[in-house]
Amino acid sequence: MRTVFAALLSAFALLVASLPAEAQTSVADVERYLNSVRTFKARFVQSNPNGSIVQGNLYVWRPGRMRFEYDPPSQLKIVADGYQVTMWDPTTKDFGQWPIGWTAASWLAKDPIKLSGDLQVEKFERGPNGLLELTMTQARKPQEGKVIVRFSENPMALQGWTIIDSRGQRVSIALTNVQANVQLTESLFKNESGR
């Protein structure tokens, strides 16, 4: 489970990337879109390296809050409450906490979100059906893997991402039913782990 959690968080960190000059117009559009979204919720389908597929709900409330809630039979939850990220699974008794600034998810919590920094884009591609794909690596640690982040271009919307780790294993997240700027409750972002 920790590998899956690390892969999810790596995707978020790698989204914050500096892009080549020829992609500046599209990057500005992506950045404007991300900063216009204060809250969102979506369904996600996660495909893991072992072939398993899990799904659930993702909630984000910027700045600082997000929640991955997996569908039964999984009881895994990953919650950022504005200060720290907590992962817990009552079934396996797996538990972990990290300061939000230390996690790869911190780009999603920032306000404003800036698509520049310690990461770099290897590829910027327009795929079929108006899909934008950004392939990114960490500038200081390119050997640690890469992420391919997907956006629809018209209208602009985050569609998902694929993390490729240093061993070549892939974790893919596909988002559906993305609803931006919806009302969310504070209770979604509270640590329920009892710790």
Fold topology:
Blueprint: H1 2-15, H2 24-36, E1 39-47, E2 53-61, E3 65-70, E4 77-81, E5 84-89, E6 94-99, H3 106-109, E7 119-126, E8 131-138, E9 145-153, E10 156-165, E11 170-180
Antiparallel strand pairs: 1-2, 1-11, 2-3, 3-4, 4-5, 5-6, 7-8, 8-9, 9-10, 10-11
Name the features.
195 residues; alpha+beta; 11-stranded antiparallel beta sheet; 11 strands
Please explain how this structure is put together.
The chain is α+β, with helices and mostly antiparallel strands. The protein has a single domain (2-183), classed as Lipoprotein localisation LolA/LolB/LppX (outer membrane lipoprotein receptor (LolB), chain A), CATH 2.50.20. It contains three helices and eleven strands; from the N terminus they run ααββββββαβββββ. An eleven-stranded antiparallel β-sheet has the order 6-5-4-3-2-1-11-10-9-8-7, with helices on one face. Strand 9 (145-153) and strand 10 (156-165) form a beta hairpin. The longest helix is centred in the first third of the chain and has 14 residues, at 2-15. It starts with a helix and ends in a 15-residue tail after the last strand.
Quick summary:
The protein is an alpha+beta fold.
What low-confidence regions span 5 or more consecutive residues with pLDDT below 50?
Answer: 9-25
| Portion in strands | 35-45%
Structural class: alpha+beta
Task: Please work out how many helical segments DSSP would assign.
Answer: 3
Q: Give the SSE string.
A: HHEEEEEEHEEEEE
Instruction: Give the second-level CATH assignment, the architecture.
Output: Clam
Main sheet characteristics: 11 strands, antiparallel
Q: Based on Cα principal axes, name the global outline.
A: globular
CATH superfamily: Lipoprotein localisation LolA/LolB/LppX
Gyration radius over CA: 16 Å
Mean of the pLDDT scores?
79
* Count of discrete structural domains: 1
Q: How much helical structure, as a percent, in the residues? A: 10-25%
Read across the widest sheet, the strand sequence of neighbours is: 6-5-4-3-2-1-11-10-9-8-7
Query: Between the first and last Cα atoms, what is the distance in angstroms?
Result: 19 Å
At the first level of CATH, the class is Mainly Beta
